[in-house]
Amino acid sequence: MKKRAVIQMTSEEEAKFIESSKTMILVTNGKDGWPHTMAMWFVLREGRPILSTFAKSQKVLNIRRDPRVTILVEAGENYEELRGVMIRGRAEIVEDRAFVEEVQIAFARKYVGGPFIEGTAEMVRARAAKRVAIRVVPLESVSWDHAKLGGGY
C-alpha cells in the first residue's frame, strides 16, 4: 500500500482536526501572479471555513479578482507528528452586516472564551462595520497524518 493512502485522514478526521485548530493559512492569488499568504482566525459554519478581515484588505481585493483560494491547517513538530489538511476552494465575500457581526461574536467566543464582559458584544459589533466575512466553499482536500505510519517512514 502506498504511504499516501496510509496517512490520508478520513473526512471525519479532517473535520475534527480543523475544528480543533486555532489558525488556518489563507492563500489568495495576487494581481502580479504571486501567492498572498496570511494566517487567519476562522470558525466553521455548516462544515465551511468562515474567516473575517477588513473590507479593503489585500485578501479581499485578490478574492474579488480571483475567488480561487487554498487554505492550510497544519500541526506537529517532528516528522511522526505532522498532520495537516489543504483545501482548494472558492471564496465568497459576505458583506451582510448581521452575518459579519455573528462571525465576529463567534470569533470572540472561540478565541477569547468565557462569558462576555459587559459591553464586549457591542464592541465586537462595532468592529464588524469595517469588515467582511470570507466563506470558503471547499472543492477538494488533501490530508496527512504521519502518526498513522507508526513511527516508520
Structure, explained:
With 153 residues, the protein is an alpha+beta fold. The protein has one domain: Electron Transport, Fmn-binding Protein, Chain A (Pnp Oxidase, Chain A), CATH 2.30.110. The chain contains 5 helices and 7 strands, in the order ααββββαββααβ. It has helices at 3-7, 11-19, 58-65, 97-111, 120-127, and strands at residues 23-29, 35-41, 43-45, 48-54, 68-75, 83-94, 131-145. A 7-stranded antiparallel β-sheet has the order 2-1-5-6-7-4-3, sandwiched between helices. α4 packs across α5. The radius of gyration is 17 Å and the shape is globular. The mean pLDDT is 91.
Spell out the blueprint of helices and strands.
Blueprint (H helix, E strand, L loop, with lengths): L2 H5 L3 H9 L3 E7 L5 E7 L1 E3 L2 E7 L3 H8 L2 E8 L7 E12 L2 H15 L8 H8 L3 E15 L8
Antiparallel strand pairs: 1-2, 1-5, 3-4, 4-7, 5-6, 6-7
Helix pairs in contact: 4-5
